[in-house]
Write a structure and sequence with these properties.
The chain is 49% helix and 7% strand. By secondary structure, it is of the alpha/beta class. The longest helix is centred in the N-terminal third of the chain and has 41 residues.
Length: 997
Amino acid sequence: MGKYIERIRNLIPGLRRPDNNVPPQGVTVDIGEVDYEKEKDMKKMSFYNPQDPLPKYDFYAKDTWKGHIKKTRPSLDVLRKPPEPDDLPPPPEEDERPNVKLVRFGWVLGVMIRCMLNIWGVIMYLRLPWITSQAGLILTYVIIFMSIVVTTITATSVSAISTNGKVSSGGTYFMISRSLGPELGAPIGLLFSFANAIACALHTVGFAETVKDLLKEFNSQMVDDVNDVRIIGAVTVVLLLCITFAGMAWEAKAQILFFIAIMLSLINYFVGTVIPTNKAKEAVGFFGYRGEIFVDNLLPAFKGPNENFFRMFAIFFPAATGILSGVNICGDLKDPTGGIPKGTLLAILWTTLSYLLISVTCAATVVRHASGNVNDSFPLMNFTTPCTGLGCKFGWNFDHCELNRTCKHGLANNFRILTTVSGWGILITIGVFAATLSSALGFLVSAPKIFQCLCKDNIYPLIGFFGKGYGKNNEPLRGYVLMFSIAMAFILIGDLNTIAPLISNFFLCSYGLINFSTFHATITKSPGWRPQYRFFSPWVSLFGSCLSFLLMFLFTWWAALVTFVIVFFLLGYVSYTKPKINWGTSYQAGFYNMALSFSMSLTGVEDHVKNYRPQCLVLTGPPNVRPALVDFVGTFTKNISLMICGNIIMEDEKSSFPQHSTDMLVDWLNQRKVRSFYTSFAADSLKEGAHNLMQASGLGKLRPNTLVLGYKTNWQECKPERLHDYVETISNAFDSSYSVAVLRIMDGLDVTDDLQNAGGSSAIDNPAFEADEVQYEKDKTDRNSDISDDGTNEQVRSVFQMKQGRKNIDIYWISDDGGLTLLVPYLLSRRNRWKKSKLRVFILGDQETMNDDRQDMKMLLKRFRLEIEDIVVITDVDKPPLAKNLQRYEETIAPFRLSEEQAGGNVQELKRLSPWKVSDKDLEYIQPKMESTLRLNEIIKKNSIHAALVVISLPVPEITCPSSLYMAWLDALSYGIHCPVLLIRGNQENVMTFYCQ
């Protein structure tokens, strides 16, 4: 195990150890993400621009010490400006923060054992055999399995939430609030933290009552029953507080001792069931494994009118409420993402097996009623005495006490029957002590952790004082004192029956909301919802949520009402005060989906990276003449994001444009089943129209953030003014902080000729979008097409309406743009036609550091929860390109070159009048970039020959770059690739995150 852990750690930069000393499992000393990035990585820049960095972990990682981004990528303004001769890439920032060594727990000690200790408790030792006698073994199994259904569904929901980004301290409150928002998260956080404090009091009182019973057996009572419980409970909780003050390491060591004690007691019990009985054990009802006893205990035998199935269920259910113990200290775990699912589910498995085995062994070895009198055996009695009970078959007559209901022993009367059955009774008593103390200690630790996170969020007034942390682990000492005071108050009351129903409802309410948050986050289809844990279903989570709320009322209806009243009061306060916080909750994603009909719901919602969606303004012209462009964008925006098809109408052509064209084009989009708005705008040029569309399109949060346009294949033959307008449109988009995507298909995008040749009147042409030379196949609708079968001959089928099979989507992530280059292919891969396609990522690197570069990128993608295993490091991009490719580039740019003779000595003036002209200085400046671009194009054509789509980082045009030179750059990058090519660039703001908040 140690070697395996060390191998994993060595894969993570910044966590490698210089030696082979591996700390033991459990409490480990771990250095966080402080030193993740190496200084040498800061020097790695894209060949696009000397200030354009390669994708980096630090651009997405938060500095948890200072609360801001450690390293920032350059803005679009910086990339758009040509660098000065003395400009160098920014030096690495000095991190003056000390390397703090933090105590971190592994998944075994931090999650599994902690959960098992909190699930095991007084119920298992003192109530489970009694429930078996009352409900019978069959109904007892039903109770256990129904409880496990609730807890297992909740555990899967917790696992999904905890693997959807880095979970900080705060446990259940943190996850609910960051998923459902502060309105529901804050009330549950407050109630759940207090419920944990009161649960600490309950387990402490349970321990005190056990000690009190032992004192009475030895005639050592101090005062009376009630005051003895108060005294013992007060002393116990003070000792537990001292353990928590000693730090998490001491608390973990205490939990290990408790776990060992419980395991020994369970082993002792199961060994005791196979040890031959004696007269004393038979007198109290234990006869060893007998088929008659097992059959008799199968069916229920409720003793009184108030004893029923749901009462037994309510008594047992608190034994299943410890599943969130690992989550509650998630801030102290080494790997919450991997540890919480594994540890929680294994804890449920082992504890369930122990409950099932204890129930069946008790039901097979102990009769329901026994007198405890050794004189009731047949050899010591008159043989003429009638005997009808089950004990008669084994030589004992318990009829008199059973009929008079005076039996004090047997499965239905003795709460401490496990002590009787076990091999050595004192170990069971030690197990009871360990179970109660471990649960009390666990709740006393988790309650302040949850409350501390709530205090730091400043949602409720007057509680911020208790959020201050101390020491290297940020221990909430003030919170410990507060929760200790609450626990002490309930210990002094000493009436468990008054507060137990309310606590059970607090836990059920939390389970219900956790399941609902998972359901809500899934159905809203937010791109930020990418949990690594996949074994959950939103509908199962919804079922678990409804079941939890239903059980609240079935157990104790008045306690459920009290719980809901408190929650609604706290919810009303938060809704009224509207705290200025933004956690990227699934409610925001839900608002987005509702915005098509309730757009005003989004006006007060702040943007967040988790809910980022590529909202596309697509310059299609009339959408029916560029179906491939429409289909491509519609594929990854359908049902989850905004798409607007923009058509720019020239002022001089406005009169010739059909008046009914808008209705025709909207009908065309509906027939093609594309969820998109259509808008047209009159302007003098493409540049002006696109600029106005970017400024005016959208409403509220339904506003485009990405400009998508087709590649201009005729840029060499068209008028130079048209070429300049096209490049200026891209430049204006970057200046407006838009992301930009350019789609290129080898055969072109425009199908105007096909529509006109078909004789269709709907072949609307727009001079602003010049036609490409293309041959498209007429549509033959099949079962896989999105085109409605209505008999129309106006639909032309594109490549994006076909199933892509097991081809690759190759992503050449050359520049770090915030993650949009990754996000769009990921969204494509979620669609049916692309779901079998495999994502591959290509990055630039050096031969010497190739393995490190691949591992760094693999870790970054893992943090993004993207299942991309194929990562290729390109190390030979600096090699010279082939001579024929270089010659083709020179021939391409030759018509736009500006000679000194043409300029007449005034180059700047001629460039001002003809900004598409290229001077010798321009060519000299871009020559190294162009050679690397040509070489990259050769690599792409070689590696992506079987790809369904190639995605490449789009270079940002500098302000002084001539339009023809920029188009030659794009042409050199994407020329000759047989499959569709997407040149895409984000606006340098993060659209991907690996954090929960």
